Amino acid sequence: MSFLKYFQFLYHQAKITSILVVINVAWFIISRLLDMRGLSDFSQSKFLIDWGADVAQLTFSGEYWRLLTNIFMHVGLAHLAMNMLALWSIGVILEKLITPFAFIGIYLLSGLFGSLASDVATIHINVISCGASGAILGIITALLAYSLINRTDLQEMPIKSIVVSLLLTAGLGLLPSIDNMAHIGGAITGFILGGLITLCLRKFRYQSQICTILTVLIFATASLILYWGYQHYQYDYLINGYRY
């Protein structure tokens, strides 16, 4: 089987997950082809910052886009490979249970809230944060919420996929220099959003207009909370004039 046919097979198994993996891999390759600093350990910090990594001081100074762009940045090939394996292991399962819009919303909002949690925790120190771990943990906990609400039998739960994904993401939190606050923020967000969306799916038909409207309202509310949190800590940062 050629690589193209194999990718087409994977794409048909989980379209959204496949697209997310491609975006992450493509961004990793393109950014380093355009900026060779990404290949050097001596200049990598500057490279990561210039290409969208999250730094609390910069983010709260008005560079709010870093909350999102850092989700698609990875420090090295091993970092990227482990995150993408974790994403595929769990994403292919959850994607079949909820709508594509809901899946994308959980992924992005988990990553965004994880980034904000990381920034709040590191507002007094100079830390560079990047990676999809927070978003992926949101997908993992959303699947857990789905299983708990539907009272899925333990034998029917994808325990192997969950364990593999947790080891590749949260398990790395045992290592130094890992952003655990992004993990925690993403996991909590994913569990809440996954639970709310699962309740909608239980109450209404999978593709019903009411379910879609409620999903939009859930994500809109979460986005407003995210915006309020960013504005609150940005105001504190600018008014108090933190020095580092």
TrEMBL record:
The chain crosses the membrane at residues 12-30, 71-90, 97-117, 123-149, 161-178, 184-201, 210-230. It comes from the Bacteria. The keyword Protease applies. SUPFAM superfamilies: Rhomboid-like. GO terms for biological process: proteolysis. Keywords: Hydrolase, Membrane, Protease, Transmembrane, Transmembrane helix. It is found in: Membrane. GO terms for molecular function: serine-type endopeptidase activity. It is a multi-pass membrane protein. GO terms for cellular component: membrane. Residues 62-196 form the Peptidase S54 rhomboid domain. The keyword DNA repair does not apply. InterPro entries: Peptidase_S54_rhomboid_dom, Rhomboid-like_sf, Rhomboid_protease_S54. Belongs to the peptidase S54 family. This is Rhomboid family intramembrane serine protease.
